[in-house]
Amino acid sequence: MRTSRYCSKDIVWDIIINMRNNPKRLFIFLLILTLFVGLIDLPEKFIISIPWKGKTIQKEINPPQLNIQIGSFKIQKKFSTHLGLDLAGGIHVALDANMKDIPEGSRMDALDSARQVIERRVNFFGVSEPLVQQVKSGDTYRVIVELPGVTDIEEALSLIGQTAKLEFRELMENQESTQAAFLFPTEENTKSVDLSGKDLKKATLTFNSNNGEPEVAIDFTPDGGKKFAEITKRLIGKPLAIFLDDTPLMWPTVKTEITDGSGVISGGFTQDQAKRLTLQLNAGALPVPVTVVEKRIVGATLGADSVSKSVRAGLIGLGIVALFMILKYGWLGLFADLALFVYGLLTLALYRIIPITLTLPGIAGFILSIGMAVDANILIFERFKEELRKGKPWQIAMELGFGKAWDSIRDANFTTIITSLILYNPGNWDFLPSSGLVRGFAATLFIGVVVSLFTGIIVTRTFIRVLYRGPKGVKKT
Amino acid sequence: MIRFSKYIWLYILISALVILPGIYSLFRWGLRPSIDFTGGTVLAVKLEKTPAHEVLERIAKENSIDLVEIQKNSTTEVTFRIKPTSEEVIDDFQKSLQTESGTLVVLRKDMVGPVIGSELLYKAIVASILVVIAILSYVAYAFKSFKYGVSAVASLVHDMLIMFCSFSLLGHFFGVEVDTLFVTAFLTTMSFSVHDTIVIFDRIREYRRKDTRTHLTNLSDIALTETIGRSLVNSFTIIFMLLSLVLMGGETVRWFAMALLIGTITGTYSSPFVATPVLLLLDRWEKKK
C or N terminus of chain B, fewer CB within 10 Å? Predict the structure, then answer.
């Protein structure tokens, strides 16, 4: 029984067996790894002051940045902790797009244009790291907007919620006489012609058949086409201004009456400009009225308060666990604590490298996984004691302890890994939650379990092999 | 060796002490679903001077706000729970509050539409079912035995009941709500609980292979005696971490940590004192047939 366990077919186990041949080399590798991840974990904008010969030397500490360039291949990475909305404060808005009037086929396009318009508006507000994302789930089409660090958002919100508004306007009578001076139409010097985005069926990017210039072709709805015909008939030779979101986009001069309910907007566009205009027009044109279905605002103070409290609670809990391990297992407990330290550094570094957006439940997941990281060591140490009681020399008992505990450890962590995967919903499936909070928790739990497998087994074991001199009262062999 | 199998009646009594009042509470008061599931608005504000409860209610009424609850967190902080309504109504309400009390800082403003709410509930249920199915198939795979599988499920159901019951009681007496995070904690508990059960069953099976003659009752007593120390130590480390979070952690994470704490405790308890007795009872029943 014992031997069959010892020669388990598990690949992981084989690797561990192979590594035991050279624990010292592994030990040095682990030290280097710890130093390396420790570097990534350096606090951000942390100022240290060292008194030196009456003066104080101040130095700001920051985590290192990667800046590698090989030919055209560039790696640039800043290692910093990403804080979720609940920690940094900010807003989360979910907008439901009403696709009732949009034909089935062009709904995704409409959603995409809506997203782009919203993104444009958000960028206009100059928020750092905004998230604008489109979500289709079943019959609902949604745009999710997350603006971290923003607190005064009422204005931003009202802006996001609007549908892109496309409007055709004509120049007001009294302005006509000074048409030469007419350069820039405003809302004041124009009036509505009662033709708007609602009357537009679709805008498409086309190319002029003569000179290949990009153009934007617009199709009106039947009603809109009729109105458009009347207006163009009335305004021949006069400008017709197109307003998007109350700002004039262009003001072409009408050349002929247009009766077929379609038109072409041209005017020396680049392809990108024309494409953008198409999108904008579609967004304004396709009446995708959006309604706010979810809105969460977290004041930065609440977040910061919760973080500092939770972090302090975590540290105290960690201290108790560390003390408990030493009291219960003596030197072995100390090694487990050292492994726990490596675990902490490694996980934090992973959060920064991947990067994982830290949320409050995420911190809870991290703290929870610390408890589980010690788990593996407890299982091993208990098995070790059992083997010791049977009268085995401690080195053998230790190796057996690791060997026998592995099965339980694997089983134990397997279910947790499955659960964290289901909660994270990596496939972005409709039928599973995809809320940021749950994800934050799942991500940290998953990383926690995987890293704890590494530190709880390989790191502790190497520490013990290299540094441990055997339990008291047991003869060395 | 401790004769754990002698005290089955005691385990039933302990579980019943929690579950019976809990079930009463579940039927009488139910759970308090958060706006995550019902839709609505939670508005937490910090006011310069907090008007009296009646004044707050009057302001809400004047703005045609359908209040569920007003909760004073401290002398300056108030939380309003409001039934689903439009944004403008909430904004107006906020303005009226401001005129009444001077400065107003929004600490938290969560607005969830009823659609999102029911959607979330649906998704949470689907996720729960998936997790339970995954865990069950894992147990079935690991033990290839109907008896062990049913016992593991019994302890799962037990933990599930304990969690819902305790949150129904907490909800009634402390106004604790069931939200998405509760579902998360619940699912994590499931995997915990099964993990502990597997460790014990693993031992029983190990001995059964070596010794086919001894009665399962004796084997399970030996297995429990050997694993109980480990189980307790394991759980204590997790409980230490969670307890410090519950007692000292931030407001937002407190009840989440509480749910995890209850889950860990019942998960630890149910493996030796629910799953194993059920296994023994099933075994006896099988022998009688």
Answer: C
A299 touching B (Cβ < 8 Å): yes
Quote the ipTM score. Answer: 0.77
Say if strands A140-148 and A131-137 run parallel, antiparallel, or are unpaired.
antiparallel
For CA atoms B150, B152, B155, B159, the dihedral sign is negative
Domains and CATH numbers, chain B: 4-34+116-288 (1.20.1640.10), 40-112 (3.30.70.260)
| CB interface of B with A, residues 104-133, below 8 Å | 105-113, 115-116, 119-120, 122-124, 126-127, 130-131
Contact by Cβ (8 Å): A474, A331 = no
Question: Considering only CB atoms, which chain A residues are within 8 Å of B260?
Answer: 364, 368
Query: What are the sequence ranges of the domains in chain A?
Result: 2-41+301-467, 85-164+291-297, 167-266
Class of residue A76 by CB neighbours under 10 A (exposed 0-12, middle 13-18, buried 19+):
exposed
A85-164+291-297 has CATH 1.20.1250.20 classification: no
Q: Which phi and psi (to 5°) does residue B180 adopt?
A: -60, -35
Fold category of A2-41+301-467 in CATH: Multidrug efflux transporter AcrB transmembrane fold (1.20.1640)
- In B, minimum Cα distance to A362 occurs at B253
- A318: closest chain B residue by CA: B241
> pLDDT tens for residues A176-234?
545 544 567 777 777 777 777 667 777 788 888 888 888 888 888 888 888 888 888 88
Query: Among residues 326-385 of chain A, which lie with CB inside 8 Å of chain B?
Result: 328, 360-361, 363-364, 367-368, 370-372, 374-375, 378-379, 382
Q: Measured over all CA atoms, what is the biggest interatomic distance in chain A, rounded to whole angstroms?
A: 110
